[in-house]
Amino acid sequence: MIRIAVGEGSCGIAAGAGKVYDKLASLLPEDMRPGVTGCIGMCFLEPIVDVYEDGKLRRYVKVDEAGAEKIASAVTTGDFEAARSLEILPEDEEFLSKQTRIALRNCGVIDPTDIQSYIDAGGYSAITKILKEGVTPEEVIETVKVSGLAGRGGAGFPTWFKWNAARASKGEKKYLICNADEGDPGAFMDRAVLESDPHDLLEGMLIGAYAIGADEAVIYVRAEYPLAIVRLTEAIKQAEERNLAGDRILGSDFSCRFRIKAGAGAFVCGEETALIESLEGKRGMPRLKPPFPAAAGYWQKPSNINNVETYANVAWIINNGGEAFAAMGTETSRGTKVFALTGKIKKGGLVEIPMGKTLRDVIFGIGGGIKSGRDFKAVQMGGPSGGCIPADLLDTVIDYKKLSATGAIMGSGGMVVMDSSTCMVGMAKFFLDFTAKESCGKCVHCRIGTKRMQEILTRIVEGKGREGDVELLEELCSAIKDGALCGLGQTAPNPVLTTIKYFRDEYDAHIREKRCPAHECAALLKYSIDADACRGCTACARNCPAGAITGTVKQPHVIDPEKCIRCGMCKTVCRFGAVKVD
Amino acid sequence: MCSCNGKPSDLSLLDGVLAEYASVDGSLITILQKAQEIYGYLPTDVLYRIAEATGQTPAKVLGVATFYTQFRFRPVGKYLILLCQGTACHVNGSERIADAVYETIGIRDGETTEDGLFTLTHVACLGCCSLSPVMMINGSTYGSLTPAKVKEILTSLARSDKEEA
Question: Are residues A442 and A562 in the same domain?
Answer without folding.
Answer: no
